[in-house]
Amino acid sequence: MKLFYSLKRKVLAVCLAGMILMALCVGGISLWTISHLTYDYEIQNMTHLVDTKATIIDDELLRSENIVNYTANAISRKVDDPAQLRDLSFRQHLAQSVDHDFQDASTNLHIICSYYLYYPSENISALWKASNGRDSTFYDVLVKQQEEIGHTAPRHVIAFAYLMDQGEAAWTQPYYSSYLNRYIISYRRPIYKDGVMVAIVGIDIDFQAFIDRLYANPPEGEHGMVILSDTTGTVEYAPDKPLGIQLADKDIHIRDVADKVAEAGQTDNMMVTYDWAGQESIAGIKGLRNGMNFIDLRRKPQIYNRTHKAVMQMVLGLVAICILASLLPIYMINRLSERLQRVIEAAKEVGEGNYDIKLHDTQRDDIGELSRNFQAMVGKVAASQGNLTYISQHDVLTGLLNRMGLDKEIADWLQAHPDSHGALVSLDLDGFKFINDLHGHMAGDEALRTLARDLVESFGHEQIIGRNGGDEFVVFMKDAEPEAAQAAVKAFSNKKKAFTYDGETHSFSVSIGYTLYRGDGMSLSRLFHQSDTALYAVKLRG
Which of 111, 149, 154, 381 has the fewest CB atoms in 10 Å of its CB? Predict the structure, then answer.
């Protein structure tokens, strides 16, 4: 948006944004605080907690019921006549089928600790399997009892008699099973055929594990507690009291009648009132499938204390927002100033000849545009400077170093390797003026280029090779001992030399003189003087 490219507009936009942000935050916090402090919100909070936990537990209770109901329906389909149960082999086959149904259905339901099939007419348990732990591995209780006491004991005869009176599926109240050595609740369903109860199927649920899960993750703070109660809402089933304890013993007394508790357990937001240690309290209640209630009990004075804390938090929040809103423009202007300062420092570096600068400013505003354009300009200047440096130190015709480049390269090497040996070779093309006069300057230029290529090919790219001017060339052999230098010069002198121009090949020769550098600190000018002297001596001798 071009509206914010201008620095002045950006500062103004930041200030306006700060004020708008402050207004939004103040309004948002106010609305949040008002909604949070309302009585209805607190009720919704409590209702959500009991609904969430009750839904999880109800789901497992429902799955347990479905397992029993599925098995009961399967038995009902297989028993056509109650008289069939008098056949021992039929009863055994039926028990095996029920065992398979329970095993397949209860694999992922670890709160089940026992399942069974009971024949009330025969007063016997045809199937009774239990699990020692929560690994879904069930052992045959009947076989174990028979091994221990010599005969099969009847299965919960009194409890099953209750079903015969009720005539329908039901959950039991918590009780302690000496056979299973744990506190359990049971779901049992009678099976009728022709109006006669022929069998009872059921499961036992580990009640200790059941209530441990319900009491996990209680409400935060000291103003509330979670309770698993009976139907009346006056008895609590706690992890340390699984058979129940009167809430009155904990100085918690219900104000409403039991019918109000049952009604509240079936609605979403109906509250039940209690007295808790003399303080008025409210409770969110959710009824479970087994007739119990899950309760979230909270004291009203503590809820109002939360209101006061929320108000203080709101005030402190507003103060903090005002401070931040006032500091934001200052911070943004400082940031803009820092970006400008980086451009100024980069300009100083360029003025001092340092082109290696990096301005990584990608923001789409005036300063960002200035930084990117300045960076591009410095890149072009650096490239031009590099080209100028290269041109100033290289010969345009041959591509070799010129006299300036030669002096710099050789001087740098002598300074870096004062104790090393080397050799400075000076040479020129014999009869160069004759070549120019006879064949033309273009042919002379080709002869010079050919000689340059021959020098590089013979002495190597690692040596310092250049054109001193006209038809004169120089080779500085680095790290060359006298014998090696002499051999290299001799080999190049003996090498046949020719250039091709306009389809014709012409031979040429060169005169060579050289001097040795023995690491004795000889100056560059002295080296050139001796090498040139050697070259002139050679030319004088022809």
Answer: 149
Query: What is the four-CA torsion angle of 262, 265, 268, 272, rounded to 10 degrees?
Result: 70
Token pair belonging to 102: 């329970």
pLDDT digits (tens, 9 = 90+) for 315-341: 676 667 766 666 666 666 666 667 777
Report the residue count for the chain. Answer: 542
H or E element, residue 112: strand 112-119
- The 10 Å Cβ neighbour count of residue 245 is 14
Domain with CATH 3.30.450.20 in the chain: 54-209
Quick: pLDDT tens for 386-427: 677 777 788 888 889 888 888 889 999 988 888 899 999 999
* CATH architecture group of domain 219-304: 2-Layer Sandwich (3.30)
Q: Which long-range contacts (CB under 8 A, 24 or more apart) does 500-507 make?
A: 500/446, 500/450, 501/439, 501/442, 501/443, 501/446, 501/447, 502/439, 502/443, 506/435, 506/439, 506/443, 506/447
Q: Does domain 394-540 have CATH number 3.30.70.270?
A: yes
> What amino acid is encoded at 350 in this protein?
V
Distance of CA 110 to the CA centre of its chain: 34
> Under CATH, which architecture does the 54-209 domain have?
2-Layer Sandwich (3.30)
Q: Which two tokens stand for residue 460?
A: 């190597």
Question: Listing from the earlier edge strand, what are the strands of the sheet with 464-469?
Answer: 464-469, 472-478, 422-429, 510-517
